[in-house]
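Protein folding task:
====================
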Amino acid sequence: MRTAVSAAALSVIAIVATGCSDRDSGSTSEAPRPVVEEVEPQANDSLVMPEYPDPQRGRLVARSAGLYELGGAWEARAGICEDPAMLELVAEQPGIGTLVLLQLPPAEERVTRYPVAIVESGPPQPPASQVGVQVFKASNAHAFQALEGDVEVYAFGERISGRYAVTLREISSDDRAMTAGVFEAVGIERLPDEQCQAVKEQYEAVDSTSSADES
């Protein structure tokens, strides 16, 4: 199992997440703050993948195992680009956010499994997925990236439904966690052209840097 964190993956996740936050900047509704507390530590080799939670329409519902409680149920939204062909699904409230990023195959093949991919340059070959979780506290923050597992999409159209089971790495401490989540009938919207272009340019920049390093 690889433990290196891809700079390309993190930078693209950051672009997508920033775009999502910008789209919500005008909202005045307040969501209830989830409880995100440290729980009894579990050794990395003793972690067991949680069972999938029951689905809730329009929401991401997750369970977790590890040092931190990463589970909960949150309203979710999904956005799609066709160039590059990718979809991001975001669920966030004050204190915690989850991002599922899919590299999409052709339209007729999108109901499938998306293995977690960590790559050193450019986007992974579709179908592939990246999953990130961020937890914010008064004193610090924790960022997790999926190392292994997959996302299974079983409905894809105007709405997307699926589930995931992944092993996460906390980027600063190298601690492991496991999370299983379900997203049900989450509406898909087209992402702004400028956000899609920013992701495309980031991939191209990383590809160019990688090619120069190899030469």
User: Anything to note?
Assistant: Residues 1-12, 14-43 have pLDDT under 50 and may be disordered. The CA atoms of residues 28 and 176 lie 35 Å apart. The first helix runs from residue 7 to 23.
